[in-house]
Structure formats: C-alpha cells, structure tokens
Specification:
The chain has helices at residues 3-28, 31-56, 64-79, 82-88, 105-127, 132-152, 154-157, 172-191, 193-203, 205-210, 215-241, 251-264, 269-285, 306-321, 334-343, and strands at residues 163-164, 243-244, 293-295, 298-300. It is an all-alpha fold. It has a domain at 14-247. A hairpin with a 2-residue loop joins strand 3 (293-295) and strand 4 (298-300). Helix 2 packs antiparallel against helix 11 (215-241). The longest helix is centred in the middle third of the chain and has 27 residues, at 215-241. The chain is globular, with a radius of gyration of 21 Å. The two termini are 25 Å apart.
C-alpha cells in the first residue's frame, strides 16, 4: 500500500472517529460543555484565518474583530425574518431591501464571509503597502472604524441595541463541519503553488520580488482569504449565541484570537487547532478567579478580571520559554507519528 493511500485511509478513519465523538458529545454532555466545544470549533476557524494572514503571509494584522463583526451582522441581517426585523428596529426603521430579505442559513454564512472579504479588499489596497507595526496599527484602526459605523448605522444594524433572537443554527455538527471545510481548504491552498509563493514572500519579500513575483497581489489575496474565514467565524459566533452588539467586537476579541495563534505556533495549522482547544478551555476554567473561591480552607475573594491576569501570565511564560509556540512551524503528519514509534526500542 502506497504512502498516499495509507494517509488517506488514516485521515478518513480520523474523520469518522471525530464524527462518532461529536455524536456522543451531542447526546451525552450538558449544554455548558457543548457550548465550550462549539467555541473551540469557532475559535479554531478564527485562529486558522489569522494564521493565514500573520503566520503564513507575514502581515501583522489586528483587524480580525472588524471582519468578524461584518460577517456576524451580514449573516444575522439576512437570516432573520421580516417580522422579527420590524419588531426589533426601534431607533429607526430598517432600510429596504434588508427589511424584506430572508435567505437560508448556509447562504447567509457564505454571504458573511464574502462581505468580510470585500471589505478587506477595500482596506488591503491602501494598507498593505505598509509593513510591520504600521500595518498592525492601521488594521486596528479599521476594526474600530467598523465598530463605530455599526453603532451609528441604526437603520441597518439597529445601532447600539444590537440584534437579538438570531436563530441558533450554529449547532455542534454545523460548527465542526465548517471547521473541517476550512481546514481542508486552507491545507489544500497552502500545499499549492500559492502556498509556496506566499511563504516565500513572508520569508524574503525583496528576493521574491526580484524573482518576478507580484508580491503585493499575493499579499492582498492572502489577506482577503483570511478575512473571508474570519467573516465565517463571526457569522457562526452570532448564530451560536443568538445575539450580537457592537461592544462584542472590540480589541480584546482580536487579542484572544492572536493569543491562540501565538500559543499554537505561527505558521502551523495544527498549532492553531491545538491552541484553540487549550486557550478556550483555560479561559473557561479560569473563571473561578473572578468569583470568591475556597482554597485550603481559606475563602479568597474574587477579583473581576483576575482570570485575564492569570491567563496573561501563563501566556508570558509560554512566550519566554517556548517562543515558537506549541507546534512552532510544524504540522502533524501520520509519517511523523509512525517514525516516532519505530524509533522506540
């Protein structure tokens, strides 16, 4: 049996096993545990999308929250029924044709990703001519502009009141199906000539340009693709929690996704998935630090926001002692697993 056939069989077996685990989790776990599993899937999509921009494209972007907001609002506006919109828009009447449009969930999910990609193209053309910290500041400013526009466009977004009652289409199966599709698309993309070129541009843009590569076009394309998947992730998040408002999409949201990417490893898709599992669990587990808790018979008063302090210290320790992250720039491969087993006496 050839190596390719064996890899395909093992991958198919892993997918079947993951499906069985999801069925067990959906039937046997409580709602809180299922919510954490859903967040892991959505955070993994967002981490992969940011890694595509930053880890593989070498573009330091802090505008992910803006792309997520665009995807979330686009999906919510398109999936809600006209009656719900008429009752919910109290500050101003919702504009036509949004007042009468309603499309299926999957179409609204795709529309959310495309809207985020379109906005990213508008911002990429002037901004991607910058580099380093300047690019990060510019994309951060873009995310804040999007949040302000959402707050002040009451006839479109319902302003600061946000959108409530979004149908909970983002189930466990839907979220992990989207994660699987996103991973497949990104892995295939990075294995193609485009992936080789964007990595070359990241490693040495001057040398890539000297070889005749249109580096700006490839950077724009990678930026838009990352924004597309960020819009998908934002739409899934809105459909999971069933309510969205401008305050959700602040810099802290981008910072959380950036932590996952850095912890997992810049330039590693496997690291993004592993990082999303660890970081999501840690953020939930550390909630005890915000409330009073008992340790060794002593009641310790909770401090609001303490979990983020503890989490930041843990992240600092990771950066100090393993700067490349959990996976570095490596990916999980079946051959790697078998070679390790063969090396054992």
């Amino acid at each position: 049996m050839s190596g390719k056939t064996l890899n395909a069989l093992l991958t198919a077996g892993a997918v079947v096993l993951a499906g069985m685990l999801l069925a067990w989790a959906n039937a046997g776990l409580d709602n809180y545990s299922i919510r954490i599993l859903n967040l892991i899937a959505i955070n993994a999509i967002l981490a992969v999308s940011l890694n595509l921009i930053y880890g593989f494209g070498g573009m330091f972007s802090l505008g992910h929250a803006g792309f997520m907001a665009i995807g979330a609002y686009t999906s919510a506006l398109l999936v809600l029924g006209p009656e719900q919109k008429e009752m919910m828009w109290m500050l101003e009447d919702i504009v036509w044709p949004l007042s009468v449009i309603q499309i299926p969930f999957w179409a609204s999910l795709l529309a959310g990703g495309l809207a985020a990609a379109l906005f990213s193209l508008v911002i990429a053309l002037p901004v991607l001519r910058l580099g380093g910290d300047y690019l990060g500041i510019a994309t951060l400013g873009f995310a804040e502009i999007i949040r302000v526009l959402i707050t002040n466009s009451a006839s479109v977004t319902n302003g600061s009141l946000g959108i409530k009652g979004i149908p909970p289409h983002a189930t466990l199966y839907v979220n992990y199906a989207c994660l699987g599709l996103a991973l497949y698309c990104v892995v295939r993309l990075l294995s193609s000539n485009f992936g080789n070129v964007i990595k070359a541009v990241r490693d040495d843009e001057v040398a890539a340009r000297a070889m005749g590569i249109d580096t700006f076009r490839y950077r724009v394309l990678a930026f838009c693709l990352g924004a597309f998947f960020a819009g998908i992730g934002g739409a899934l998040q809105g459909n999971l929690i069933t309510t969205i408002d401008p305050k959700m999409f602040n810099f802290l949201l981008t910072f959380n996704i950036l932590m996952i990417v850095v912890a997992g490893g810049l330039g590693s898709i496997t690291g993004s998935v592993i990082g999303s599992v660890i970081i999501t669990f840690m953020l939930e587990w550390l909630r005890f630090a915000d409330s009073p808790f008992e340790a060794l018979g002593v009641t310790i008063p909770g401090v609001p926001g303490m979990r983020m302090v503890v989490f930041a210290l843990a992240l600092l320790a990771l950066i100090l002692y393993r700067r490349e992250g959990i996976m570095g720039m490596h990916e999980f491969r079946w051959e790697w697993l078998f070679s390790r087993r063969r090396k054992k006496p």
